[in-house]
Amino acid sequence: MYFRSLILAVFTMLAITAVQCTSEAGLTTEGEINPLLLISIDGFQNEYLERNETPNFDRFIDSGIKAEYMIPSFPTKTFPTHWTLATGLYVENHGIISNSFFDYELGERFSYGPPDDSPNDERWWGGEPIWITAEKQGKTAATFFWPGSEASINGVRPTKWVDYDGSIPNRDRIDQVAEWLDPNGDVRADFATLYFSFVDSRGHAYGPNSAEVDEAVKEMDDLLGHLFSKIEEIGMTDRLNVILTSDHGMAEMSEDKLVFLDDLINLDHVDMVDWTPVAMIRPHEGRTEEIYNALKKEEDNHGYTVYLREDVPERFGFTNHYRIPETIMIADMSYTITSRPFFEQRGIPAGNHGFDNDTPEMHTFFSASGPDFLRGETVEAFESVHLYELMSRLLGLGPAKNDGERDRLLHFLRQ
Ligand code: AMP
Ligand code: ZN
Ligand code: ZN
């Protein structure tokens, strides 16, 4: 009798140790790892839901957690912010400093629009995105768009990925991802992404406070309805963790808020790495002080702040990368930095982003739901840099080096 209870006790201890080991590796619900779907709705300002009827967003939010808002990385542009979400690195540590920028060591420009194919080129991308961490640790990742997902990282790619083609209908993206997540399908993905660009496009064309953006938000709500019915169809409603978020917000632009750089400095004395709303200026040899002083002198008369690279506020995480040039000019909210010829030819969009990441206009929406998330809770605002750690915990992965804190978002999860 004594012997039997001793054996039982030893077995119980072994079982407890096993559970503890796995939970240290990142599991949250009794040793079971649930698949994760990460969704980005480009340019979805945190305020968009307040003024629209969105039954499917509401259903999702009620079944999980919603953050007061999320703080994206800086500058608040699509490529830098998505890459922070995926890698947990501040921009200075991942090197995708804008959507378009010149690298003086490579002697090449990074640019995402056709015919450029820099997104597919491994040399640009620093750090390790969550889908590569997953693949390297024996999991299956499948991406239906995400900036950076088309490139191999140290020779590794997601099991399934798609070359960016904005014309692929949004419903087709959802149907494909549902097939990849289907537990009875061929892929049985542990991690998947979805990406939608039309809310951002509508925001640029008509401004964030337009009826057209409201229409886009409702279209997105319908798409979510479609996604939920597909998840139901594959029997994953109770098993799939879903993170629904965005890369940055959107701000109203104004023709009264223009900064003409050619009025302030001689553009022949600098190289422009990027223009607006964060002008990244590389003064020619020996001219840094002259350019910086000229811009500093006029700062109070125009809508911007200028910094030498080493003085850029630390909270931006935008100092220590060789691609970041010596002089950084950050436009005040709603201002555009441009030149007279460029403005005359191209004008300005109705909406734009890229500004200070800790402003209501640039804050994004964040919600998450699924078996591992708390239900019906609102959580306080947080920085997107921490999501990589949360995702690696959900997937039971050992994280690569990153700037997030391991336990920073632990309170999102059921214990
Ligand atoms: P932005 O210019 O910052 O507003 O970026 C939004 C645009 O980025 C979208 O409308 C797409 O055209 C483009 N985009 C998003 N994801 C990708 C990708 N993975 N590859 C190439 N272009 C992309
Ligand atoms: Zn974007
Ligand atoms: Zn945009």
Strand runs, count: 20
Query: What's the tally of helices?
Result: 12
How would you sum up the global shape?
A: globular
Bound molecules: adenosine monophosphate, zinc ion
Low-confidence stretches: 1-29
Strand order within the widest beta sheet: 7-6-8-1-9-18-2-19
CATH topology of the largest domain: Alkaline Phosphatase, subunit A
Q: Could you characterize the architecture of this molecule?
A:
With 415 residues, the protein is of the alpha/beta class. The protein folds into 3 domains: 31 residues; 272 residues, 3-Layer(aba) Sandwich (Alkaline Phosphatase, subunit A); 91 residues, Gyrase A, domain 2, CATH 3.30.1360. The chain has 12 helices and 20 strands. The strands form 6 sheets. Strands 7-6-8-1-9-18-2-19 form an 8-stranded mixed sheet. It has a 4-stranded antiparallel sheet with strand order 12-13-15-14, with helices on one face. It is globular, with a radius of gyration of 23 Å. It starts with a helix and ends in a 21-residue tail after the last helix. The relative contact order is 0.21. It binds adenosine monophosphate and zinc ion (2 copies). The site of one zinc ion has 5 residues, from helix 7.
